[in-house]
Design goal:
alpha/beta; eight-stranded parallel barrel; globular; 9 helices
Length: about 290
């Protein structure tokens, strides 16, 4: 089991330098990963926000070991060939520490709709699948062309290639218990589900793994990535919380570091208290087993 934090780059964390310092501190206290939400516009609370790729470049320059990436990038909102450039550059800057999390994106009515972009889930799913094909085709550095329902590329070569081979790891996000995200994830390198009521349970993960195995065509390593929140009272002895997930096959525990885990309302502007609580949690280091 590896341990990471995920946080929204909002409020004080909208400053890439502050984020980089925070990631440096997270690495120093033993976290294995540092992941950012990817939104252009999150909600009508109008939190200050930053671009995750610029921020992760700053993070890469201040760290040397910790894994970094997005959870998750709504690929339908990004041009795949531009994202190919960004991800290769970041993979090289970080010496091969990038993991790309992808999904449909949420909340679509704001992050897509406020800009007049496509909010229909089926269209966005098609763009996501075609975008993944394009990303991985361009990453090879070999002659590549593409003809799909959403995208058309003339033959080209994208160089340089990522450091990581055969590719930058791709984790696919999705809402549990929807089956399409699991089938999509089975083609790639990991699955990061969201279960809105009560969070994913170990039995849910056993069901996930059974289903994904039915659709896997590769025996390459595959990550089961759990988003969770360890209670404060159990942080120093978290075996009873985390070990049932490890026994169910979970390989990454992604700790939620956001104002809303502390009970704050989604409807209010960012407060200094939010930053302090999040900083304190990150600087504890990962839960102790």
């Amino acid at each position: 089991m590896q341990f990471a934090v995920t946080l929204p780059p909002f409020g004080d964390y909208a400053d890439p330098l502050y984020l980089a310092q925070t990631a440096q501190a997270a690495e120093a206290v033993g976290w294995d990963g540092f992941f950012l939400w990817d939104h252009v516009f999150f909600d009508p609370s109008f939190h200050p926000n930053t671009d995750p790729w610029v921020a992760l470049a700053a993070v890469a320059s201040k760290t040397s070991r910790i894994r970094l990436g997005t959870l998750i990038t709504p690929l339908a909102r990004r041009r795949p060939w531009v994202l190919a450039r960004q991800t290769v550059a970041l993979d090289r800057l970080s010496a091969g520490r990038l993991t790309l999390g992808v999904g449909l994106g949420d909340p679509a009515q704001w992050d897509f709709g406020f800009f007049g972009e496509q909010t229909d889930a089926k269209v966005r799913a098609q763009r996501l699948d075609e975008g993944l094909d394009i990303l991985t085709g361009l990453w090879t550095g070999q002659p590549f062309k593409y003809q799909g329902a959403q995208y058309t590329l003339q033959e080209m070569r994208f160089l340089p290639t990522p450091i990581q081979q055969p590719r930058i790891p791709i984790w696919v996000g999705g809402n549990w218990p929807n089956k399409p995200p699991m089938r999509r994830a089975a083609k790639w390198d990991g699955f990061y589900p969201i279960k809105w009521q009560g969070g994913m349970q170990p039995d849910d993960w056993r069901e996930v793994w059974r289903y994904i195995q039915q659709h896997r065509t590769s025996d390459a390593p595959f990550d089961l990535v759990n988003g969770g929140s360890v209670p404060d009272a159990q942080w120093a002895k978290a075996d009873s919380v985390i070990m049932p997930y490890a026994e169910a096959g979970v390989t990454w525990w992604i700790e939620d570091v956001s104002p809303w885990r502390f009970g704050h309302s989604w409807e209010i502007q960012w407060q200094p208290e939010f930053t302090k609580q999040m900083d304190d949690l990150i600087r504890r280091g990962p839960p102790t087993l």
